[in-house]
Specification:
With 123 residues, the chain is an alpha+beta fold. The chain has a single domain, classed as 2-Layer Sandwich (Ribosomal Protein S5, domain 2), CATH 3.30.230. The protein has helices spanning 17-26, 64-81, 104-117, and strands at residues 28-31, 35-41, 52-57, 89-95.
């Protein structure tokens, strides 16, 4: 049976540095010890209502194995919760060092709380 959340495609990601910068400049910022969430609405999203995700992890989070595990968890959270997000938004998740020790459930809970605080979800 196909997953209703669908795959995480290239078109669902922020790819360019300029896209990250735009979200950083214009986006709403909410933070917790493990993650910072930046959310920005795209003006040109009228034709493309896709929600896009960008992830950044500094080396302070841990070695590559740990950083990649955290990024996989963030991608999976976004892929599964994408239907709850408003159309045409860009989301950037910045990992902090506290993210390394979180379980999968803790990661999802924190990110859902941050998305609600950032007013990124549908009413």
């Amino acid at each position: 049976m196909p997953d209703p959340a669908g795959p995480f495609r290239r078109s669902d990601r922020l790819l360019r540095s300029s896209e990250y910068s735009k979200v950083g400049r214009e986006g709403r910022r909410v933070a917790e010890p493990a993650f910072v969430l930046l959310v920005s609405t795209r003006e040109d999203a009228g034709d493309d209502p896709v929600q896009r995700l960008g992830i950044t992890m500094s080396r302070k989070v841990g070695p590559a194995v740990v950083r990649n595990r955290v990024k996989r968890r963030v991608r999976e959270w976004f892929r599964r919760t994408r239907p709850m997000f408003r159309s045409g938004i860009d989301v950037v998740v910045i990992g902090r060092s506290a993210a390394a020790g979180l379980s999968d459930q803790d990661t999802k809970g924190i990110l859902c709380r941050l998305a609600d605080k950032a007013n990124a979800t549908r009413s």
